[in-house]
Design goal:
Largest sheet of chain A: 2 strands, antiparallel
Strand content of chain B: 25-35%
Number of strands of chain B: 10
CATH topology of chain A: ABC transporter involved in vitamin B12 uptake, BtuC
CATH topology of the largest domain in chain B: Rossmann fold
Strand content of chain A: under 5%
CATH class of chain A: Mainly Alpha
Distance between the termini of chain A: 52 Å
CATH architecture of chain A: Orthogonal Bundle
Structural class of chain A: mainly alpha
Strand order of the largest sheet of chain A: 1-2
Number of domains of chain A: 1
Order of helices and strands of chain A: HHHHEEHHHHHHH
CATH class of the largest domain in chain B: Alpha Beta
Largest sheet of chain B: 6 strands, mixed
Shape of chain A: globular
Number of helices of chain B: 10
Shape of chain B: globular
Distance between the termini of chain B: 30 Å
Helix content of chain B: 25-40%
CATH architecture of the largest domain in chain B: 3-Layer(aba) Sandwich
Number of helices of chain A: 11
Structural class of chain B: alpha/beta
Largest interface: A-B, 21 and 28 residues
Radius of gyration of chain A: 19 Å
Oligomer: heterodimer
Order of helices and strands of chain B: EEEHEEHEHHHHEHEHEEHH
Number of domains of chain B: 2
């Protein structure tokens, strides 16, 4: 029982990061019908930025802020400079362009930083605190939970309470009508990409230091897990992305805890295939088809 | 009409090589209702879309209160006082009634007046007030039309472009919408350019009428004359 509790809490902690990363994918999908396959590589780049700023300033927090800010800028650049020009009539075009971007980013990172892992610091202890004899969350886990929660609540407030959030949603749902209502749809798309990349950058900064550290490929698996989480949640649903992320975290934790760590990646693929077979639109696909 | 609010001259527009509209001239006086009628495919919808820059014009000019609208982007038309209720109403079904209305005035700096205009719309359309938290896809056809018109009105437009407001509505609801347009014209001086297949009800409230046929204006006169002209009706409107 203790072990189950531990694995559950551990799974949720890991899942929170996947949830944030999946949320970033959903943000872009809703606005553009593009799955941003470059999101992992973009987050790897911003993680290096965070690493470098922390190395230069000896401040974890400055590095974190730099990575998130770098994500904002990188997201805007990728949308303005690249994705805007992709002909979306064939969905494959955006995928190919994104994969090309992945190669470019990986190459640049390899040239600048080399391919060895750079250990990164964490601001809080990763030693689990014992509660009632059971080792549960570490202070760092709590920090991750809190940060992800803050980001989600913040995004939810922006999208439901502010005019700019309303315009972003409208631009995503009905771009042509939104233009007639005075919405600068192009600017809203740029903003969506910037926000998504910033959320992705933050998620990567939370997870990469707990693994081997910064590396051009440090976010590859995170992307696969987050992509699974987003698909499980239905790609269109922010709430689905969050639940999907937590589910993926739990599956990873249970499989590596009860079976074998080597099986965890396989388990995620099984989960992905299972969801696609049983509910191709995801668990949270909205049941109302778009009506004109 | 030298002081027309909207004046269109020689407008040629369409999709691709073949223009749908050919050298269309049109004037709408401030505080009047103009009805554009014509058979299916006459270019009525294209006309409204061209006025808003949704469809590119290859020739001609459009002036709003003297201002040349060439090169003005679609998203800025509302800032020139033009609100467009497109074919099919364009209610954003994922958003609630309130959010649709908020979107209608979110571009304005005067937030207080935006809220005031929203309150006025709720007064004008009782059913909307009762459903303010409902999502667009939960509304009936009539409620959607009210929402679409209300969302245009919160922008406090000088010119309202309406594309087939009667489409898919019960005759009673159509009559209500038409009566409302007349009331808005009388009470607030709103100018309306109305595109309709439902010729009778459109001409019954309009001051002037324009008949489009195959992308050209074949008649433009006051609405009563047009409604009484049997030859014209037989030839172009089919009744």
């Amino acid at each position: 029982m203790d072990r189950f509790l531990f694995l559950t809490v551990d799974g949720l902690a890991r899942g929170a990061v996947f949830a944030a990363f999946a949320l970033a994918l959903v943000l872009i999908w809703r606005g553009t019908r593009i799955v941003n396959f470059a999101q992992g590589a973009m987050a790897a780049a911003t993680t290096y930025l965070g690493y470098s700023v922390t190395a230069a300033s000896d401040s974890y927090w400055l590095g974190l802020v730099a990575a998130v800010f770098g994500g904002l800028v990188l997201g805007a650049i990728v949308e303005r400079g690249l994705m805007r020009f992709v002909d979306v009539r064939s969905p494959l075009n955006a995928v190919i362009v994104a994969l090309g971007l992945v190669l470019v980013i990986h190459s640049i990172l390899g040239i600048v930083y080399g391919s060895r892992y750079r250990a990164m610091q964490v601001p809080f202890s990763r030693e689990s605190i014992e509660i009632g004899g059971t080792a549960l969350l570490s202070p760092y886990d709590l920090f991750v939970f809190g940060t992800v929660l803050l980001v989600m609540v913040g995004l939810a407030l922006v999208f439901t309470r502010t005019d700019i959030g309303l315009r972003m949603r409208a631009a995503a749902f009905a771009p042509d009508m939104s233009r007639l209502l005075g919405v600068n749809v192009g600017r809203m798309l740029t903003l969506s990409w910037a926000l998504a990349a910033a959320v992705g950058a933050l998620a990567a900064m939370l997870v990469v230091p707990t693994e081997f550290g910064a590396h051009p490929h440090s976010t590859d698996l995170v992307f696969v897990y987050a992509f699974t989480a987003a698909v499980v949640g239905g790609l269109d649903s922010p709430a689905g992305a969050v639940v999907g992320g937590l589910v993926v975290g739990l599956v990873l934790s249970y499989v590596s805890g009860y079976a074998d760590g080597d099986l965890s990646a396989v388990a995620i693929l099984v989960l992905l295939i299972g969801v696609l077979l049983l509910r191709p639109n995801g668990l949270f696909a909205s049941t109302t088809a778009r009506q004109v | 009409m030298p002081d027309a609010l909207l004046s269109v001259r020689g407008l040629t527009a369409g999709y691709g090589a073949a223009p749908v509209l050919q050298e269309v001239d049109l004037e709408v006086a401030p505080g009047s209702i103009a009805a554009v009628v014509g058979a299916n495919g006459a270019g009525k919808t294209t006309l409204l879309r061209a006025l808003c820059g949704v469809v590119g014009a290859t020739a001609g000019e459009v002036r709003m209160d003297g201002t040349d609208l060439r090169g003005v982007r679609t998203q800025d038309m509302v800032r020139h006082g033009i609100a467009h209720v497109p074919e099919g109403r364009g209610v954003i079904t994922e958003l609630t009634v309130e959010e649709n209305l908020r979107l209608g005035h979110s571009w304005r700096r005067d937030k207080a007046d935006g809220r005031k205009a929203t309150a006025e719309v709720f007064e004008l359309f009782e059913p909307l007030a009762r459903r303010r938290k409902s999502a667009g896809h939960q509304l009936s056809g009539g409620e959607r039309q009210m929402l679409a018109v209300g969302r245009a009105l919160v922008a406090r437009p000088r010119l309202l472009l309406l594309d087939e407001p009667s489409l898919g509505l019960a005759p009673k609801v159509t009559a209500q919408i038409m009566a409302l347009l007349r009331r808005l014209r009388d009470d607030t001086g709103l100018t309306v350019l109305l595109v309709e297949q439902n010729v009778r009800s459109a001409l019954s409230i309009a001051d002037t009428g324009v008949v489009l046929s195959l992308g050209r204006v074949v008649a433009a006169t006051d609405a009563a004359t047009l409604a009484a002209d049997e030859d014209l009706r037989h030839t172009y409107l089919g009744f």
